[in-house]
Amino acid sequence: MSIKDLIFYWKVVKKRLWLIGLLLVVTLGVIFLTSFLSKQVYKATTSFQVTAPLPAEVTIYSEFKTSSTIDELLRTRGNFVAVLQSKFVVSQVIEELGLDMDTDELLATTLVEPEEDSDFIDLKVTAGDPSTAAAIANTLMDNAARYFGEMSAGSITANKEFIQQQLREIKDELDAARAALMQFQIENRISSLEGLLNSQEDLITTLKTSRDEAQVKSGTEAVSVYDELISKRERELQDLILLGSEYEILQDDVKRIKDVYQSLLDKETEAKLKENEIMSARFIQVIPASEPSHPLPRFEPKLFLLGAIVSLVLGIMLAFILEYLEHVETETDADGPAVLREAITDSI
Q1: Does the pLDDT value for residue 337 go beyond 50?
Q2: Residue 214 belongs to what domain range?
Q3: Residues 187 and 231 in one domain
Q4: Per-residue pLDDT for 138 more than 90?
Q5: d(CA 225, CA 185)
Q6: Residue 90: its pLDDT value, please?
Q7: Mind listing the pLDDT tens digit for each residue in 62-96?
Q8: Which of 40, 43, 130, 289 has the greatest count of CB atoms below 10 A from its CB?
Q9: Which of 283, 282, 274, 287 is nearest to 53 (CA)?
Q10: What is the mean pLDDT of the segment spanning 209-226?
């Protein structure tokens, strides 16, 4: 771009400087008048921090972890922000506070943004009076936390109900296995098979010892009596050994079902604790909003600066457009209009 071109541009701007100034004054005047006539608004701010991810679901079988704690924490935070800005929660706030507005209007008065150099996220609400602004902010946060807890606990609640159903079925199996074992003990007069086997073996050993003593002292007649007793006790021992396999099967059934039942009880307790933790939303720490003491300033310097820049740009563009149109209508020289049009077109 040459100095000649710059001089040409300056002449065009200088010639229409009154128009650029007028547009600037009108724009700033409209902004000032609009700001002056606007109603005073108050802004209340409540902050929250997600201190932990959602508790993991209760796993009945094997658990496979595929994401880190940081990923889960960010996911929990993002999901809560989505619930906070959902129309369902906003409509609940409108109904609870009796506000005369729809969900879109209330959402337009809210802003969610993270704090700098902090893990906290701010919920900012503007309203016509300080009490309404604080009430909307706090009610919106409370309802979002409650609904987020109910929604997030859904899968854990379903797991808990499934575990409770399995507990009832396993309890029936355990009662049936215990009844079968007890019936076996009653029919065979057995309280403890191992103790009974030991007692039987001790009795046979004692009889054999007594038979040997009788053989030395009393002769063959007493020995034959002991032999009959020993044979009888040995047959009883064999019967007990045969019963032992069935007894062990019944005992193993009771132990196996009892272990499953105890494991499900532990899972049920875990599910209840996690459900209560999520429902209470203790992993979301909230700093409630207080009523603002001063309204927001009506005049925003940034808005005035933006209006001035936009009006200056538009004014300069309009000046070149008018200059072009003026020379198109008045210039008679064949080469002059073409050169001027080319210069102004390039500048625009």
Answers
A1: no
A2: 155-276
A3: yes
A4: yes
A5: 31
A6: 92
A7: 454 444 577 778 888 888 889 999 999 999 999 99
A8: 289
A9: 283
A10: 70
Tell me how far the alpha carbon of residue 235 is from its chain's centroid.
69
Which of 12, 6, 10, 23 shows the shortest CA–CA distance to 325?
A: 12
Claim to verify: residue 304 and residue 231 sit in the same structural domain: no
For residues 272 and 315, membership in a common domain is answered with: no
Predicted confidence at residue 342, as pLDDT, reads 54
Q: What is the 8-class DSSP label of residue 235? A: H
Contact 272, 161 (CB under 8 A): no
Do 211 and 311 lie in a common domain?
no
The identity of residue 235, as a single letter, is R
Whether residue 200 lies inside any domain: the answer is yes
Both structure tokens of 108: 């337009």
Q: Which residues pair with 284 in a beta bridge?
A: 50
Chain mean pLDDT for the chain: 79
Contact 148, 80 (CB under 8 A): yes
Nearest to 270 by CA among 166, 157, 168: 157
Q: What is the DSSP letter of 67?
A: S
pLDDT above 70: residue 268: yes
Q: Are residues 248 and 315 in the same domain?
A: no
Residue 217 lies inside a defined structural domain of this protein: yes
Of 57, 59, 269, nearest in space to 167 by CA: 269
260 and 187, same structural domain? yes
165 and 257: one domain?
Answer: yes
Residue 283: inside a domain: no
Residue 54 carries which DSSP code?
Answer: P
Check: pTM over 0.70? Answer yes or no.
no
* Full DSSP string of 134-148: HHHHHHHHHHHHHHH
Alpha carbons 31 and 35: distance in angstroms, whole number = 6
Over residues 252-265, the mean pLDDT reads: 91
